[in-house]
């Protein structure tokens, strides 16, 4: 919305820094030509939308972009990728691309390590199911792909495998976005209306000053500490006078209606939505937590009636058996099942269940037209643009003002940082450029990637700085003194991309000194890429950070690393009150350490406690958790070593290592690769070892894989997986 009041004053020192930075940028980029944008559209869509595309190109030119129009029905994605690469290397190098209409989609396998969470079994579920639809194929030119085939169901999808010799991490060269209308007879009318909306959004002088975020049931362990800290850090990240509103799913049993009302606010700029999801559903609410016995009983009755309906098709005996089982096991009276097949009661139950979530049909039923200009779906599958209809698409192509969304094409990790560098949007960065720096394999911009909010500070061009190819490190070092936390984070990110020699030390010192949680979080994530002694020291500090997200990530990193030096810190945390999600991550990370060492440290620390409420009850419980810490590891290694274990059991234990990096077992896992007579299992184990990215045993794995790949006796499939693992860990 319009910025009503903003303190734009900067210190004389920082004005000098900005002046110096501007000069350096001018000198370093004076040879660069105007930045371009590829506008890619299929032939039929262009025939229907020629006037709208002309208006879109015109507004981009007004903003200083040079749109390169490509009207073509591409037979395969490789041709389009080559055209984009040529434009990227051309005189007016493109900074991004927008795909309008029916543009080939790419579904990939052998690249799950580049997602945030997707780990579906490719062998079990097959190519058509265990893939990730991704536009990283188009915007990251360094990745190498092997073509498999086109989809056989009539969709414009092509399957690829990530080549073993390809880079094994994402680093997009350009940004991208998809404008794809839901399937149907009116899709061209929808595209036309959308393009007009996008052009109007470009011409509005709209500042980011109205922000809304939502927390759905079961997300981040429903930690209110996480949400409180998130709001605090958002207030630091988003410069200017920004109104931040929050809604939790627990606010109402059917929070959907309050949720829709918030998102239909005409003044709403950005909505960050934390919830579970699917291609056609936002899962907002669960059964309400209540102290009322009558409400609890009614919820149980509703569940029981639903249970009976599910078995009704099996006949009267099945219905009777369910009633009897619940009576014998839980002493539930048969009367609690009453009304299960009553038409009126069934309808009431159905409506109550439907109102827990938001589905595609709700857009028409409730005339739901969301107005948040930019919507971030921190959820699984809401960005599944490969489906005929998809949740994010319904937001974009409604009659509301939503013009762009970020969504995921597969499931996504809860413990990620969805508001990373979000403050750059307040300073005029294009949404696509922001997404380019934070995207996983599954993360996409749906809608116009060139959309941006009006900057609250024209004195700094974050879009130009970020998109330029020749900004010197000195410029980024100067910007570390910026009063805007996310400009500091941008500078740190760019120094990392430039492989600045002193960055590891700088990240540790900045973490120690910064008052901003977002800067400390960025320092930790970048330091993790070095995985060196500085990172270990940083994690020791981060384990006691007062920003919940930093502490939560640090606990997870500690488990991923497995250093015994971290045991005293982790045991100390086990004796402290923690947020729900930190506590959850701590329980997981403790599994990666030797339980004898954990117990020895626990006994030492607990003996020195001066005061501990309910010590007699709680300390034995905590000790019991530590005693059980390595039981999963023991079961894992025992199964792999057991000659009587089935292939299926071994297979499960190897795949388990993708989520559970048992550092203590690396010697045995390497021995398994050397000695197993099952080549498929040997390859699977090598792939699993590629997930030990932050392990203290990482170098041992790399050395083994290199030697295996160099051995002339190693079979080619095994050699390729060994080389892939080296690249993943290096």
Give a description of the structure.
β1, α2 and β2 form a beta-alpha-beta unit. This protein is 48% helix and 12% strand. The protein folds into 5 domains: 145 residues, Rossmann fold; 174 residues, Rossmann fold (3-Layer(aba) Sandwich), CATH 3.40.50.1460; 62 residues, no CATH class; 111 residues, Serine Threonine Protein Phosphatase 5, Tetratricopeptide repeat (Alpha Horseshoe), CATH 1.25.40; 76 residues. With 730 residues, it is of the alpha/beta class. The strands form 4 sheets. A 6-stranded mixed sheet has the order 10-9-11-15-16-17, sandwiched between helices. A 4-stranded parallel sheet has the order 2-1-3-8. It is built from 31 helices and 17 strands. The relative contact order is 0.09. The N terminus is likely disordered. The two termini are 46 Å apart.
- Beta-strand proportion: 5-15%
Low-pLDDT segments, ≥5 res: 1-32
Residue share in helices?
A: 40-55%
Number of domains: 5
Distance between the termini: 46 Å
- Compute the number of strand runs: 17
CATH architecture of the largest domain: 3-Layer(aba) Sandwich
Mean pLDDT across the residues is 93
- Overall 3D geometry? globular
Q: Find the CATH topology of the largest domain.
A: Rossmann fold
CATH classification class of the largest domain: Alpha Beta
Largest sheet: 6 strands, mixed
């Amino acid at each position: 919305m319009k910025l009503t009041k903003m303190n734009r004053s900067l210190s004389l020192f920082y004005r000098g820094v900005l002046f110096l930075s501007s000069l350096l940028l001018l000198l370093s980029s004076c040879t660069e030509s105007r930045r371009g944008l590829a506008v890619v559209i299929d032939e039929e869509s262009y025939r229907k939308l020629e006037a709208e595309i002309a208006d879109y190109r015109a507004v981009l030119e007004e903003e200083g972009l040079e749109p390169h129009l490509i009207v073509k029905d591409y037979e395969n994605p490789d041709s389009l990728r080559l055209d984009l690469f040529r434009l990227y290397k051309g005189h007016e190098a493109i900074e991004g691309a927008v795909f309008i209409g029916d543009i080939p989609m790419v579904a990939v396998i052998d690249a799950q390590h580049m997602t945030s969470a997707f780990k579906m079994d490719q062998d079990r579920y097959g190519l058509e199911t265990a893939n990730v639809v991704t536009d990283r194929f188009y915007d990251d030119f360094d990745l190498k792909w092997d073509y498999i085939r086109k989809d056989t169901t009539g969709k414009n999808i092509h399957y690829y495998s990530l080549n073993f010799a390809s880079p094994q991490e994402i680093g997009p060269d350009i940004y991208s976005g998809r404008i794809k209308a839901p399937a149907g007879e009116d899709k061209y009318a929808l595209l036309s209306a959308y393009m007009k909306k996008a052009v109007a959004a470009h011409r509005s002088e709209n500042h980011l000053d109205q922000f809304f975020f939502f927390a759905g049931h079961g997300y981040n362990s429903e930690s209110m500490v996480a949400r409180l800290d998130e709001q605090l850090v958002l207030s630091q990240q988003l410069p200017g006078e920004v109104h931040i509103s929050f809604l939790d799913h627990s606010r109402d049993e059917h929070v959907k209606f309050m949720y829709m009302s918030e998102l239909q606010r005409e003044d709403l700029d950005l909505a960050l939505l934390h919830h579970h999801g699917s291609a056609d559903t936002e899962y907002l609410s669960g059964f309400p937590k209540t102290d009322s016995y009558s409400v609890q009983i009614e919820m149980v009755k509703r569940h029981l009636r639903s249970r009976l309906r599910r078995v009704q098709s099996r006949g009267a005996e099945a219905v009777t058996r369910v009633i009897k089982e619940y009576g014998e096991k839980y002493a539930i009276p048969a009367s609690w099942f009453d009304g299960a097949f009553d038409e009126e009661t069934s309808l009431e139950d159905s409506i109550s269940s439907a109102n827990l979530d938001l589905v595609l049909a709700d857009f028409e039923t409730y005339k739901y037209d969301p107005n948040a200009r930019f919507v971030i779906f921190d959820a699984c599958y809401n960005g599944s643009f490969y489906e005929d209809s998809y949740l994010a698409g319904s937001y974009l192509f409604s009659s509301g003002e939503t013009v762009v969304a970020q969504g995921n094409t597969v499931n996504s990790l809860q413990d990620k940082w969805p508001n990373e560098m979000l403050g750059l949007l307040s300073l005029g960065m294009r949404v696509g450029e922001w997404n380019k720096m934070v995207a996983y394999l599954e993360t996409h911009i749906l809608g116009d990637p060139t959309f941006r909010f009006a900057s609250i500070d024209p004195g700094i061009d974050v879009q130009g700085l970020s998109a330029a190819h020749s900004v010197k490190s000195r410029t980024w070092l100067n910007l570390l003194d910026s009063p805007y936390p996310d400009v500091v984070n941008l500078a740190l990110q760019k120094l990392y991309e430039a492989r600045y020699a002193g960055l590891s030390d700088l990240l540790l010192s900045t973490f120690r000194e910064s008052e901003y949680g977002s800067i400390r979080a960025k320092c930790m994530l970048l330091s993790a890429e070095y995985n060196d002694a500085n990172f270990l020291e940083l994690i020791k500090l981060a384990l006691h950070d007062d920003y919940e997200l930093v502490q939560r990530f640090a606990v997870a990193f500690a488990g991923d690393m497995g250093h015994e030096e971290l045991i005293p810190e982790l045991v100390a945390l086990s004796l402290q009150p923690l947020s729900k999600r930190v506590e959850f991550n701590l329980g997981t990370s403790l599994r990666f350490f030797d339980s004898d060492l954990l117990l020895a440290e626990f006994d030492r620390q607990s003996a020195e406690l001066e005061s501990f409420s309910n010590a007699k009850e709680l300390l034995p419980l905590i000790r019991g958790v530590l005693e059980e810490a390595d039981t999963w590891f023991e079961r894992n290694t025992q199964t792999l070593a057991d000659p009587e274990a089935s292939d299926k059991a071994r297979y499960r234990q190897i795949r388990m290592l993708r989520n559970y990096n048992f550092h203590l077992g690396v010697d045995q896992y390497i021995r398994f690769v050397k000695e197993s007579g099952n080549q498929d299992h040997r390859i699977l184990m090598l792939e699993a070892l590629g997930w030990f990215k932050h392990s203290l045993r990482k170098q041992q794995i790399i050395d083994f894989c290199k030697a295996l790949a160099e051995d002339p006796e190693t079979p080619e499939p095994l050699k390729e997986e060994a080389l892939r693992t080296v690249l993943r860990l290096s």
